[in-house]
C-alpha cells in the first residue's frame, strides 16, 4: 500500500485505553494546528468501535479549540442510546485537559426503504483533469513560504478540481466547486473504514468555496479561516479508493462566517453522502 495512505490508516487506528476511552496520534499537514478532518475521522473511529454491527448514517460536530499536533488526543465516548434500530453516541476529544472537539453520531442497523436522489452534475471525468499537485508545482515559486508548505504537502488523497483555483490572482465567481477525489491506493473492504476516511476528506474544499464570490484565496495574509462546525450524512455505501465527485456550493456568508454544503457522488452517479460546514472567515486589518 502507498506509504502515505498506510500512515493515514495508522493514524485512524486508535489505542483503546478503556471500554469507551481511546487515544490517537496526529500528523502535521503543514497547518499550525491539527487538521480538522483528522479529529473528525478519529472521533468517528472511536464512536464506531462502540456501535457493533451498525453503520454511521449521520454526524454533527463542533471544533472548539485548535489541536496540538505534537500531543495525543483522547476520545471519550458516551453510549447515549442503543435502541432496536438506532444507536446514538457522543464523543468528546480532550487535549491538555481541555475539550477541543465534540461530536454526536447516529448509527443504524441496515434496512431497506424508499429511495430517491438528485442527479450527479455533468462535469468532465477525472482522467481528463490535472491533479492539484501538478498545478501547485507550476506556481510554487510564486507562493508565500507558509502557503507553499501547506499546498505542496503530499497527501493520501488525490484531488482533481474541474476548475483549478488561482491562488495568485483570484477572480470573483459563483460559489460553486466540483472536485474529484480518491485515495491514492486500494483499501481493504471495510465499510466502517471507508466511511471514516470519507469523513476525513470531507473537510477539504468546503470553506474555500465560500471565498469565491469575494475574490479571496486561502493564501491571503490577513485572512483568518477556521472550521466551526461540520455535519455529514451517509446515504449509501461508497469506496474512497474509487473516484468520488465532491459537488460544493456556498449559499451564504455573513457575520464573519461562511456556510458551505457538499454532495458526494460515486462515479456511477449514486449520491453516497452529504456534508455541511460553517466556518470563521475574517479579514483582519
SS elements, strand count: 12
* Computed Rg: 18 Å
Major beta sheet, specifics? 12 strands, antiparallel
Structural class of the helices, strands and pairings?
alpha+beta
Amount of beta strand? 35-45%
Give the overall shape.
globular
Poorly predicted parts: none
Distinct helical segment count: 6
Cα(first) to Cα(last) distance is: 46 Å
Helix content: 10-25%
In words, what does this structure look like?
It is a single chain. The mean pLDDT is 93. By secondary structure, the chain is α+β, with helices and mostly antiparallel strands. It contains 6 helices and 12 strands. It has a 12-stranded antiparallel sheet with strand order 1-2-4-5-6-3-9-12-11-10-8-7.
Q: How are the SSEs ordered, and which strands pair?
A:
Layout: H1 3-11, E1 15-18, E2 21-24, H2 36-48, E3 55-63, E4 73-82, E5 86-95, E6 98-108, H3 132-139, H4 145-151, E7 157-161, E8 176-183, H5 191-201, H6 206-211, E9 223-234, E10 244-254, E11 257-266, E12 271-283
Antiparallel strand pairs: 1-2, 2-4, 3-6, 3-9, 4-5, 5-6, 7-8, 8-10, 9-12, 10-11, 11-12
Helix pairs in contact: 2-5
Amino acid at each position: 500500500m502507498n506509504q502515505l495512505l498506510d500512515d493515514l490508516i495508522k493514524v485512524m487506528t486508535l489505542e483503546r485505553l478503556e471500554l469507551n476511552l481511546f487515544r490517537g496520534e496526529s500528523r502535521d499537514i503543514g497547518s499550525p494546528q491539527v487538521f480538522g478532518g483528522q479529529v473528525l475521522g478519529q472521533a468517528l473511529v472511536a464512536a464506531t468501535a462502540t456501535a457493533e454491527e451498525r453503520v454511521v448514517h449521520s454526524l454533527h460536530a463542533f471544533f472548539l479549540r485548535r489541536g496540538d499536533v505534537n500531543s495525543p488526543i483522547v476520545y471519550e465516548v458516551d453510549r447515549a442510546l442503543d435502541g432496536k434500530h438506532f444507536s446514538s453516541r457522543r464523543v468528546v476529544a480532550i487535549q491538555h485537559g481541555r475539550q477541543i472537539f465534540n461530536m454526536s453520531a447516529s448509527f443504524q442497523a441496515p434496512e431497506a426503504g424508499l429511495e430517491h436522489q438528485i442527479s450527479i452534475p455533468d462535469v468532465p471525468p477525472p482522467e481528463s483533469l490535472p491533479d492539484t499537485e501538478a498545478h501547485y508545482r507550476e506556481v510554487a515559486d510564486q507562493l508565500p513560504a507558509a502557503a507553499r508548505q501547506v499546498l505542496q504537502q503530499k497527501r493520501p488523497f488525490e484531488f482533481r478540481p474541474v476548475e483549478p483555483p488561482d491562488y495568485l490572482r483570484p477572480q470573483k465567481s459563483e460559489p460553486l466547486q466540483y472536485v474529484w477525489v480518491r485515495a491514492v491506493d486500494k483499501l481493504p473492504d471495510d465499510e466502517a473504514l471507508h466511511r471514516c476516511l470519507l469523513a476525513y476528506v470531507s473537510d477539504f474544499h468546503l470553506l474555500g468555496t465560500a471565498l469565491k464570490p469575494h475574490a479571496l484565496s486561502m493564501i491571503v495574509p490577513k485572512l483568518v479561516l477556521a472550521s466551526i462546525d461540520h455535519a455529514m450524512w451517509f446515504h449509501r455505501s461508497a469506496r474512497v479508493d474509487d473516484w468520488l465527485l465532491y459537488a460544493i456550493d456556498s449559499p451564504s456568508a455573513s457575520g464573519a462566517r461562511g456556510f458551505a454544503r457538499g454532495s458526494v457522488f460515486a462515479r456511477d452517479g449514486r449520491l453516497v453522502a452529504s456534508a455541511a460546514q460553517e466556518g470563521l472567515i475574517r479579514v483582519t486589518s
